[in-house]
Amino acid sequence: MRIASYNVNGVVNRLPQLCAWLDVTQPDVVCLQELKCTTAAFPQRELKALGYEVLVHGQATWNGVAILARGAAPLETRRGLPLSKGEPADTQSRYLEAAVNGIVIACLYLPNGNPQPGPKFDYKLAWFQRLNRHAADLIKTGHPVVLAGDFNVVPTDGDIYSTASWKDNALLQPEARAAWRALLKQGWTDALKRQFPDKTPYTFWSYLRNRWPRDAGLRIDHVLLSPALAQRMTEAGVDRAVRGLEGSSDHAPVWVELADGDASA
Question: According to the model, what pLDDT value does residue 262 have?
């Protein structure tokens, strides 16, 4: 079973590139982020023609997440992260959760947080804290769970081509990295890091300053596996060539391959 995550950076405008990738690689489950369209405007018909059932949490202009499943309808279990008492309602479409073939699929688009310091960075950290609380609850269930998406955090200096021009960027700040480490300490396995322990591949290359041709990339798209799933991982990777397509997103798809197993494990 192949589960992939892709920040498509505008699903309507980049539908040809998305469909080309799906047609060639045919992942079983896909988590999409940064749809930049409402639920009603999401191109369900075109994706159903490729064999995918769709669950969408859209938002006009910004954000938006979706879960695609090939040959099976995703069963929604949560739309948006749970709130603690006194926390304000979150109006941004950044989290969607569904059950697919016995696996809980959590698709997320964590806030960017720039500029920092400021309210956007505060929102990023507060959202991260809510994610970590909910992720801890998911771990406690013992169910097989995937957390996949654009986390907007570069875990270490080894996950970026150079930190020189990124020192003040929210993606590299100590608070965001501490939240990432706290998440992993719950028991999640970073699939790409496990597959490539020495040199983990990049997943994002900015459109600016010729960064794609120079391979001046970052790793901010991640697939995390609960203990029940980590033992089933056989391979993980980045479909880097998709970033090189004309008119493509500035991200590349990330994926993990899972061996067949007992869904109730």
Answer: 58
Type and span of the H or E element at 19: helix 15-25
CB neighbourhood size of 257 (10 A):
18
**E strand intervals along the chain:** 2-7, 29-33, 52-57, 65-70, 75-79, 95-100, 103-109, 145-150, 189-190, 221-225, 233-238, 254-258
Tokens of 140: 């406690």
* Strands 29-33 and 2-7, bridge-based pairing: parallel
- 100, β-bridge pairs: 103
Contact between 5 and 256 under an 8 Å Cβ cutoff? The reply is no
Determine the Cα–Cα distance for residues 157 and 172; give it in Å rounded to an integer: 8
Q: Which two tokens stand for residue 224?
A: 């995390």
Taking the chain (265 residues) in consecutive chunks of 10 residues, what is each chunk's mean pLDDT? Answer: 98 98 98 98 97 97 97 96 92 98 97 98 98 98 97 98 96 98 98 97 97 97 97 98 97 97 50
Q: What is the pLDDT of residue 86?
A: 86
Predicted local confidence at residue 263, as pLDDT: 40
Distance CA 256, CA 237 (A): 7
Longest pairwise C-alpha distance within the chain = 48
Question: For residue 79, what are the β-bridge partners?
Answer: 96
Return the amino acid letter for 97: E
Q: Which of 85, 106, 112 is nearest to 29 (CA)?
A: 106
Buried b (16+ CB within 10 A) or exposed e, 69-82: bbeeebeeeeebbe
Residues annotated catalytic, as ranges: 109, 150
81 with 131: CB under 8 angstroms? yes
Task: Say which CATH architecture domain 2-258 belongs to.
Answer: 4-Layer Sandwich (3.60)
What is the model's pTM? Answer: 0.96
Token readout for 8 is 């498509």
